[in-house]
């Protein structure tokens, strides 16, 4: 595996003599309906014998596809490290993330850079790590779990269950490490004081501005919008 482009140590690789039976396999996926829009991830961790060890899935709030993909990878790494495993082969249909983790692409986005650093930190705790790209049809279970997470977050009913609308949680600008499952929304943040002069990021959809982050602006506050 090649080194990365940022002067850090290369991703740990397993010696050729290691037994394949020691390796877990994980498939991860993330998606966003709108990009940015309601986002979620899904992941499946499989034992060397082909047994499902874990299914990970979480609704994230309003994020881009790329952030959701990284959160899927982080959920796998967090589960593997937490449960004491040392080697994992990850399969993802995100070519961007795979090439960034393998050091072939630079990480220019500040949001992705933070997630990349979190992933690299957990990878360094492992004795063996590989990540490869696969087309979506070879990543079906992770894709299904990611879509189920987005369905839960947007109130879309699953088969045989009534809809239960969940308010979009606003995730912080510097993304937090993912939990290993569940989709409960984060607590609402306190409103930002008027006249604070604080800058927020967001996006426009259907003529309305949607903020990214934990801020809620009270009614009557004047804002200045600068197009990036």
UniProtKB/TrEMBL annotation:
Keywords: Hydrolase
Chain spans, region Disordered: 1-20, 151-193
Keyword Hydrolase appears in the UniProt entry: yes
RNase H type-1 domain location: 20-151
Compositional bias segments (type: Pro residues): 169-178
Enzyme class: hydrolase
Comp. bias (Low complexity): 179-193
Pfam families noted in UniProt: RVT_3
GO MF term (any one): RNA-DNA hybrid ribonuclease activity
Enzyme Commission numbers on file: 3.1.26.4
PANTHER family hit by this protein: POLYNUCLEOTIDYL TRANSFERASE, RIBONUCLEASE H-LIKE SUPERFAMILY PROTEIN, RIBONUCLEASE HI
Protein name: Ribonuclease HI family protein
Protein source organism: Granulicella cerasi
């Amino acid at each position: 595996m090649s080194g990365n482009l940022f002067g850090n140590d290369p991703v740990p690789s397993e010696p050729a003599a290691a037994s394949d039976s020691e390796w877990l396999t994980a498939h991860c996926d993330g998606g966003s309906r709108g990009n940015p829009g309601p986002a979620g991830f899904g992941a499946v961790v499989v034992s060397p014998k082909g047994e499902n060890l874990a299914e990970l899935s979480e609704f994230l709030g309003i994020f881009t596809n790329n952030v959701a993909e990284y959160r899927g990878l982080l959920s796998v790494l967090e589960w593997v490290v937490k449960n004491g495993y040392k080697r994992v082969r990850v399969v993802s249909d995100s070519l961007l993330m795979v090439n960034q983790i393998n050091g072939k692409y630079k990480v220019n986005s500040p949001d992705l850079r933070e997630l990349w650093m979190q992933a690299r930190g957990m990878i360094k705790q492992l004795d063996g790590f590989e990540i490869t790209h696969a087309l979506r049809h070879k990543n079906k279970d992770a894709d299904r779990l990611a879509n189920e997470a987005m369905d839960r977050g947007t109130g879309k009913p699953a088969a045989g269950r009534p809809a239960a609308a969940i308010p979009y949680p606003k995730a912080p600008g510097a993304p937090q490490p993912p939990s290993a499952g569940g989709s409960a929304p984060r607590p609402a943040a306190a409103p930002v004081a008027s006249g604070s002069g604080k800058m927020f990021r967001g996006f426009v959809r259907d003529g309305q501005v949607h903020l990214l982050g934990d801020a809620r602006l009270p009614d009557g506050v004047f804002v200045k919008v600068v197009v990036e």
